[in-house]
Amino acid sequence: MQYAGEIISLAVAVFWTGAALASEMVSKRWGVFVSNVWRMLIATSFIAILCWLTFGQPYPVYASSKAWFWLALSGVVGYAMGDYCLFKSYILIGSLYGQLFMTLAPAATAFSAWVMLGQQLTVQNLLAMTVTLAGIVLSILGRGEGHKLTLRLPWKGVLLAVGAGMGQGVGLVLSKIGLDYYTQDVPADILPSVVNILPFSANMIRCIAGFFCFLLIMWLHQGFDDFKRSRTDGRGFLYVILAVICGPFVGVGLSLMAVQYTAAGIASTLMALTPIIIIWPSHWLFGTPITLKGIVGAVISCIGVSLFFLL
Prior knowledge:
The protein is an all-alpha fold. The chain is 80% helix and 2% strand. Strands 1-2 form a two-stranded antiparallel ribbon. The protein is globular and about 65 Å long.
C-alpha cells in the first residue's frame, strides 16, 4: 500500500501519545514505583508470550552473558532511571511537557554514541540539538513581574523531564550494544526468521532489569502496602495495561514495522510528533492550558528532531 510506512509511523505517534496519557493517569493514581513495577511485569509477560510463540521458549534463549549485561544495563538506565524521571515528571508537570522534553532523547543518543561508540558528532547533529532546545525553551519560559523571563514550570519537574530524555537516549545506545551482541549469538540459520523479533526479545531483558530495580526501590521506600492495595484497583490496571500496550508492546512493534516500508528518517520524524498530538488530549483529560507559544515551541522541537534524520 502506498504510504504504508508513513501511515504506520503516524499510528506509532498516536500510540505513544496514548501511552503517555495512560502513564500520567496511573502515576497519579498509584505513584511512580508501584506503576512501574506493574508496567515492567506486564510488559515482560507479554513479551514472554511472544518469545514462546516465536522461539519456542518464553525467554531470550540465545542471548549470551555479554548481551544480558549490556541490555540489563540499558534497562537500568533507560527504564529504572529514565522512566522514574519521566513518570515523576508526569506528576509534577504533566505528560504534555514530559513528552516535550523527550525530544531531547535524540540529542542524548547522538552524544552518547559519540562517547561510547565513536560515532561522529556532526554539524547537523549540533544544529538539531540547538533547534530542539530552542523549541523547549520557548514553551516553558514566560513573562513574569517586570516583564522578566521566568520559568512557567516547577524546577524539579523540569530537571526530572530532562533526566528522562537523557535516560532514554543513553539507554538506547546501551541497548544497541546489547542487541548487536544478541544478534551475533543467534545461529546463522535461524537469524533470518527471527531478526524482526530480536528487539522485542532484547527488550524483555531490559524490562526484567527495570522490574527488579523498581521492586528494590519500592521495598526500600516501604511501598509494598501500596502495591498490595493496587491489586484490587481495576481502573488503575486498565490504565497500566493501556500504557504497556501502547508503549513497549504495540508501539515498539509498529515502529519496527514502519521502517520496513519507508525511510528511517521519515519514520523517525513522524513518530516524533507525539508532543504535538498530545496537546489537545492533555487539555481535554487534565485541563492543561493550550497556548500559541506552547504549540509553536512543540513544533520547533519536532523540527529539531527531524533535523537529526532528514538533512
